């Protein structure tokens, strides 16, 4: 099982699990909350079949990676990503994130630059800034996120059941684009993540990425469902074209948050066309 050390806690290594498959130009896929690197199965197979090298990894606290008590913030997540990219000595990368993973992509490029990266992909974007403030009236009220944290503390499994109903828009797509079994698999994956991370990552979602977004200097693909109930389109994707220099936007009509699973017939051709150039 390939792992890389990114830090320590109480004398024990904090390690990330990763998978490195195929050959060719590398595409690094960064998963969302509360899933893991295997959540890109509908995209990884396509990329491998088309001659790309695909690297996925589990963020600290998720999947088969370590579950420390600290480090659930985007400065640390981006630093962990840098350790992985440096250790594998990757270059000419397409750096692609889904949901929470879009924060790693954005903070990495904002902080470390694009020397290793030729393109970026944001699917179900967290940036530019989710929290409603005086200078960010388009954001979401902070009470929403406090409610999420309280729900996680009160009954984490029950919270995840409700979360996935909205993650996939189950009331709309159950039995057509999302099966009960796929929801159950996502639920089991979520329960395996660190309970501390399940709570503490909520604060990370409120990171202000506006300066990072302005520093992105590589072509970027944005894919976002216009029926996203987790990261509402109006508070996220709709704002990015005015903030980014070279952005291609694919809006998935009726798409929920996880369009990579529910709408691969839209997502996969757009992704493949973008990474091929």
Number of helices: 10
CATH topology: Rossmann fold
Number of strands: 8
Parts with pLDDT < 50 across at least 5 consecutive residues: none
Helix content: 40-55%
Q: What's the CATH H-level homologous superfamily?
A: Alpha/Beta hydrolase fold, catalytic domain
CATH architecture: 3-Layer(aba) Sandwich
Global Rg: 17 Å
Biggest sheet descriptor: 8 strands, mixed
Q: What is the molecular shape? A: globular
Work out the count of structural domains.
1
For the biggest β-sheet, the strand order reads 1-2-4-3-5-6-7-8
- For the record, the CATH class is Alpha Beta
Approximately what portion of the residues adopt beta-strand conformation?
A: 15-25%
- SSE series: EEEHEHEHEHHHHHEEHH
Q: Give average pLDDT, whole number.
A: 97
Class of secondary structure makeup: alpha/beta
Distance from first to last alpha carbon: 32 Å
Fold and architecture overview:
The protein is an alpha/beta fold. The protein has a single domain, classed as Alpha/Beta hydrolase fold, catalytic domain (Rossmann fold). It is built from 10 helices and 8 strands. A hairpin with a 2-residue loop joins strand 1 and strand 2.
């Amino acid at each position: 099982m390939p792992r890389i050390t990114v830090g320590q806690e109480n004398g024990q290594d904090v390690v990330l699990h990763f998978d490195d498959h195929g050959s060719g130009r590398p595409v690094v896929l960064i998963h969302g909350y509360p899933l893991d690197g295997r959540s890109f199965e509908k995209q990884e197979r396509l990329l491998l079949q088309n001659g790309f090298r695909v690297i996925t990894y589990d963020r600290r606290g998720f999947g088969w990676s370590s579950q420390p008590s600290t480090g659930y913030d985007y400065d640390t997540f981006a630093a962990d990503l840098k350790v992985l990219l440096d250790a594998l000595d990757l270059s000419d990368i397409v750096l692609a994130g889904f949901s929470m993973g879009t924060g790693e992509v954005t903070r990495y490029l904002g902080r470390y630059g694009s020397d290793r990266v030729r393109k970026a992909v944001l699917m179900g974007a967290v940036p530019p800034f989710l929290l409603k403030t005086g200078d960010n009236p388009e954001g979401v009220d902070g009470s929403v996120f406090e409610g999420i944290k309280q729900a996680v503390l009160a009954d984490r499994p029950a919270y995840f059941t409700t979360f996935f109903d909205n993650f996939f828009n189950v009331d709309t797509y159950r039995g057509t684009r999302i099966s009960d079994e796929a929801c159950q698999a996502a639920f089991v994956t979520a329960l395996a993540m660190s309970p501390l991370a399940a709570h503490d990552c909520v604060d990370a979602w409120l990171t202000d990425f506006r300066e990072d977004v302005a520093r992105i200097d590589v072509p970027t693909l944005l894919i976002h469902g216009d029926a996203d109930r987790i990261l509402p389109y109006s508070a996220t994707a709709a704002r990015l074209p005015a903030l980014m220099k070279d952005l291609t936007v694919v809006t998935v009509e009726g798409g929920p948050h996880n369009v990579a699973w529910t709408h691969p017939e839209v997502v996969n051709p757009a992704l493949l066309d973008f990474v091929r150039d």
